[in-house]
Amino acid sequence: MSDPARETEAETKARRGRNIALALGLLLFVILVFVVTIVRLGGSVLEPRL
Predict the structure, then answer these.
(1) Which of 29, 25, 2, 26 is nearest to 14 (CA)?
(2) DSSP codes, 24-43
(3) Residue pair 46/38 in contact by the 8 Å Cβ criterion
(4) Which of 3, 7, 33, 35 could in theory staple to 11 by disulfide, Cβ–Cβ 3.0 to 4.6 A?
(5) Which pLDDT value is given to residue 28?
(6) What pLDDT is attached to residue 31?
(7) Looking at residue 22, what is its pLDDT?
(8) What single DSSP character describes residue 16?
(9) What is the C-alpha to C-alpha distance for residues 38 and 11, in angstroms, rounded to an integer?
(10) Please, what sign has the CA dihedral across residues 9, 14, 20, 26?
C-alpha cells in the first residue's frame, strides 16, 4: 500500500475515482436486489392487509 502522505495529486484523484465507482456499483447492486425481491414476492408486500 502507498503512504497517503506521499501520494501525488494524480494518485489521490485516481483513488477518489475508484472509491466513487465502487460506491455506485454497490448502490446499484443493492437497488437490483431490492427490485428483484419485490418482483419475486409479486408485489403482495406493498398491498395493505385488511
Answers:
(1) 2
(2) HHHHHHHHHHHHHHHHHTTT
(3) yes
(4) 7
(5) 98
(6) 98
(7) 98
(8) H
(9) 41
(10) negative
CA neighbours closer than 13 Å in the CB half-sphere of residue 31? 6
pLDDT digits (tens, 9 = 90+) for 18-36: 999 999 999 999 999 999 9
Distances (CA, A) of 25 to 19, 29, 31: 10, 6, 10
pTM > 0.85: yes or no: no
Give the cell for residue 22: 465502487
By residue count, the chain amounts to 50
Which set of grid coordinates corresponds to residue 28?
446499484
Q: How far apart are CA 45 and CA 34, in angstroms?
A: 12
18 grid coordinates:
475508484
Q: Are 38 and 45 in contact (CB under 8 A)?
A: yes
